[in-house]
Design brief:
This protein is α/β, with parallel strands linked by helices. It has one domain: Rossmann fold. 37% of the residues lie in helices and 18% in strands. It has helices spanning 4-9, 11-14, 20-28, 41-51, 84-95, 110-118, 130-143, 171-174, 185-188, 192-210; strands spanning 31-35, 55-59, 100-104, 122-125, 146-153, 156-162, 220-225, 230-235. Strands 3-2-1-4-5-6-7-8 form an 8-stranded mixed β-sheet, with helices on both faces.
Length: 249
């Protein structure tokens, strides 16, 4: 049973028959790993903390830069030059003291990610570089965990949900090239609300999966055009030659 304080805090989502007491208890017992605490990770972490996800594991090795404040809504001007994971943990605990926050402030790679992925329920890829994205994908496939990946550049965003057994393929099937794309947030810029849209939707998909609601996005890439407010959906297909999830790996 939920005590009065918990009931009042989550009363609006408890009213939903898809969540209710059982769903809230599932959220309370859940652990989510968020890799990257920038423009995507900021709204995702805020909404998951507000929803009452029991443990948030935050991985990021960056310090806050003044240029981040245009889109990274977890932070404030006086926070510049401090570690993002430390700042994020403080903000999230102030928002919801009932949750636990664990922080990892070293650069993540495949071998460091494996135990983090193994001991959490699902993973949000909120990073902005290809090498880390590929490492996250490989760790999730190896540990058979759900992956919700987001990205944004300019006025455009992408959202991808991957669930085991990855019948539609994995991130490496979609992007086998491990080289950094020519256009990214650093080189081409990004409008702040675009990362807000994608990061918020990552949190939504995470909540649905944690309460055992099916995701209609499994194995699909959603493309958002912020100028025209258009969405396009691409169906993934497994690459047999994929070194991560393919039959010849």
């Amino acid at each position: 049973m939920l005590d009065d304080a918990i009931f009042m805090r989550y009363s609006r989502q408890l009213l939903l028959e898809e969540i209710g007491n059982k769903g809230q208890q599932k959220l309370t017992m859940s652990k989510v790993l968020i890799v990257g605490l920038g423009g995507l990770g900021s709204p995702a972490a805020l909404y998951l903390a507000a929803a009452g996800v029991g443990e948030l594991w935050l991985a990021d090795n960056d310090k806050l830069h003044i240029s981040n404040l245009q889109r990274q809504i977890l932070y404030h001007t006086q926070d510049v030059s401090q570690l993002k994971v430390t700042l994020a943990a403080k903000q999230l605990n102030q928002l919801n003291p009932q949750i636990k926050v664990k922080t990892f402030n070293t650069k993540q790679h495949y071998h460091s990610l494996r135990p983090l992925v193994r001991n959490t329920d699902l993973v949000l890829d909120c990073t902005d570089n290809m090498s880390t994205r590929q490492a996250i994908n490989a760790a999730c496939v190896a540990e058979k965990k759900n992956l919700i990946s987001g990205s944004a550049v300019g006025f455009n965003g992408q959202l991808l949900v991957l669930e085991p057994p990855y019948n539609q393929g994995c991130y490496a099937c979609l992007y086998p090239d491990t080289n950094e794309p020519y256009q990214n947030c650093r080189t081409a810029g990004v409008v702040g609300p675009i990362v807000g849209v994608i990061g918020t939707l990552q949190a939504l998909e995470a909540i649905k999966l944690l309460i055992n609601l099916p995701s209609s996005l499994n194995g699909k890439l959603k493309l958002f055009d912020g100028k025209q407010h258009n969405w396009h959906t691409l169906q993934l297909s497994k690459a047999k030659s994929c070194l991560i999830c393919g039959t010849r790996r």
